[in-house]
From TrEMBL:
Organism: Flagellimonas oceani
Keyword list, A-Z: Signal
Keyword Electron transport: no
Leader sequence residues: 1-20
A Pfam family reported for this protein in Swiss-Prot or TrEMBL: TIG
Protein name (Swiss-Prot/TrEMBL): BIG2 domain-containing protein
Domain BIG2 positions: 120-196, 201-279
Top-level taxonomic group: Bacteria
């Protein structure tokens, strides 16, 4: 009986121990040390849909075994590890703490996640959706972004920069007719404006004059007579000349005649143009006499140089200065712009005169003569300083006289044409002086009544020297570099002037008592009446001749006579064209 009790007691103790161990390991016994924790989350604020990283411990590796809430609103877990959960802020969430529940254990963040307003998608607008412009600089347009863009910048571009360009400030410049799209880009968001560049805007443009006729140096004025346009303010007019050697024009429409010829003046206003034809005639200066007074005709209008007795023998124009050489009260005289200077006053004689004037580089040369001690002194004045031209030594004539006809200056050389003469034998010898040295043109023995004359000298661009006059055994002749060319065998004929242009040799004078013009030795009578062609001048292939017909001063232009206004017997001695 006692043995049974011992074994029973032992069995009971074992059962109690087993029961005790089973109770400790049962489901109702709480775990210790593995509850989840939240150490941080980032970002700490954001809009719905923002991805949030939650850092902590004791998370479940399976996303579905982790319950995450923003306040009372559950969030979707996209990935999970024991230390990191990735979630998105759920719709409906408000600013609150974040909780994580794992196996019934809850972890709560210490900080609050702030739910922000969701940014609305950026959109921009322009002040213009479409523009119509004209292809000229005056018709630019400014585009602007009218919506708020904060501190963002705008990038502008044109789809066709040959039609219109746009700068960094949105200024659109039209260039040619066509269409382009201007785009404004702000952080990838764009807005556009269609720019159409069209013809226009001027519909009518007329000038007040279809043409002007001017003389060289004159001015005229053109103005816009009619201007109609589809805009209130057009571009400024632009004036131009197609031949500035003939006429120039300022931007106010003021025209200046520069040289002979024809030019077209054009005014342009945007898409329209109007023109005016400008015909410029050269100024024609003719020196001579009328009623025994020295006169100067300019473009046919007479100016009396002095009310006293005298005449004008030569005219030369240098820039704006007009020089006239001649005689006043039996003294050699020079007029400059109408002001007279007597070059010598040693005697009074009808032969005293200044016969020719030439200006070179501002230096004024005048040829002439004055009676001194019963002979004539051949004189050259250089800027008013007198020189007596010398004769060759050993001459048989005593006294030796000289009558000068013409002076010409070329490349620093001074050429004077004239005649050496003696009174007792009535002999005359054509002579040329080069820089003061006498070069006889004829071999004259100064026998009684042996005559040759040199009236005029001209030097061409080849430095060939031409002298017009009368030969000893001939009538009208000219010498080229000392070689004589006979124009007429009639002893009474004379070549009074020579001019060379474009290789053509022109000589004016008289033949059979009629005014004549020789062109390359071919004679043309300028009138059937009596007279003389005293001087020839060629400008732009137009031939001008001054002279007289039946005691009336006459100017021929390409053979057409123009009687110069006069009050009595008159004579045209010299012509200059500029």
């Amino acid at each position: 009986m006692k043995k049974f009790s011992t074994w029973a007691a032992l069995a009971l103790s074992v059962c109690l121990f087993v029961l005790s161990c089973g109770k400790d390991d049962g489901p109702d016994t709480p775990k210790t040390g593995d509850a989840p924790t939240i150490t941080s989350f980032t970002p700490t604020s954001g809009a719905v849909g923002t991805e949030v990283t939650i850092n902590g411990t004791n998370f479940d590796d399976t996303s579905a075994n982790n319950t995450v809430k923003f306040g009372d609103v559950a969030a979707s877990v996209s990935s999970a590890t024991a230390t990191k959960l990735m979630v998105e802020v759920p719709t409906g969430a408000t600013s609150s703490k974040i909780t994580v529940t794992v196996d019934g254990e809850i972890a709560t963040s210490t900080g609050t996640f702030t739910v922000t307003e969701e940014d609305a998608p950026l959109s921009i607008a322009l002040n213009e959706d479409a523009l119509t412009l004209y292809p000229y600089p005056a018709y630019t347009a400014m585009l602007e972004v009218t919506t708020a863009i904060g501190e963002d910048t705008v990038a502008w571009s044109s789809s066709d920069e040959t039609v219109a360009t746009v700068d960094a400030d949105g200024l659109v410049t039209p260039l040619k007719i066509g269409e382009t799209t201007i785009t404004a880009n702000v952080g990838g968001t764009t807005a556009t404006c269609t720019v159409s560049v069209v013809d226009g805007p001027v519909t009518k443009l007329e000038l007040d004059k279809e043409g002007l006729e001017l003389f060289t140096g004159d001015t005229g004025e053109l103005s816009i007579f009619a201007l109609e346009a589809d805009v209130e303010q057009t571009s400024a007019p632009v004036w131009s000349s197609d031949n500035t050697d003939v006429a120039t024009v300022g931007q106010e429409g003021n025209v200046t005649a520069v040289g002979a010829g024809q030019a077209t003046i054009t005014v342009t206003v945007d898409n329209a143009s109007a023109t005016s034809t400008i015909v410029v005639q050269p100024n024609v200066y003719v020196a001579g006499r009328d009623n025994n007074q020295p006169v100067l005709w300019i473009n046919g209008e007479k100016t009396v140089l002095s009310e006293e007795n005298g005449y004008a023998r030569s005219v030369y124009v240098d820039g704006d200065d007009v020089y006239v050489a001649g005689q006043l009260n039996k003294h050699p005289a020079l007029w400059k712009n109408g002001e007279v200077t007597l070059l010598a006053e040693n005697s009074e004689a009808v032969e005293n005169e200044a016969t020719s004037v030439y200006v070179d580089n501002g230096v004024v040369y005048v040829a002439g003569q004055e009676r001194r001690n019963s002979s004539f002194a051949p004189l050259l004045w250089v800027d008013g300083t007198e020189q007596v031209l010398p004769f060759l030594e050993g001459g048989i004539i005593d006294p030796q006289d000289g009558l000068l006809g013409s002076v010409y200056v070329k490349e620093g050389k001074i050429y004077v044409a004239g005649t050496q003469t003696t009174g007792f034998a009535q002999a005359y010898a054509a002579t040329l002086w080069e820089n003061g040295l006498q070069v006889p043109l004829e071999d004259v023995s100064f026998e009684f009544n042996v005559v040759s004359y040199a009236y005029s000298v001209f030097v061409d661009d080849n430095s060939d020297v031409f002298v017009a006059g009368k030969g000893q055994d001939e009538g009208a002749v000219y010498w080229k570099n000392g070689a004589k060319n006979v124009l007429s065998g009639v002893l009474s004929s004379r070549a009074k002037s020579v001019y060379v242009s474009n290789g053509n040799v022109y000589c004016s004078g008289f033949l059979n008592a009629k005014p004549a013009l020789w062109t390359n030795n071919q004679v043309e009578f300028l009138s059937d009446d009596g007279g003389s062609a005293e001087e020839v001048f060629v400008d732009n292939d137009v031939v001008y001749v001054a002279g007289e017909v039946s005691d009336f001063a006459t100017l021929w232009i390409d053979g057409e006579p123009m009687e110069l206004p006069s009050e009595a017997s008159s004579y045209a001695h010299s012509v200059f064209v500029k």
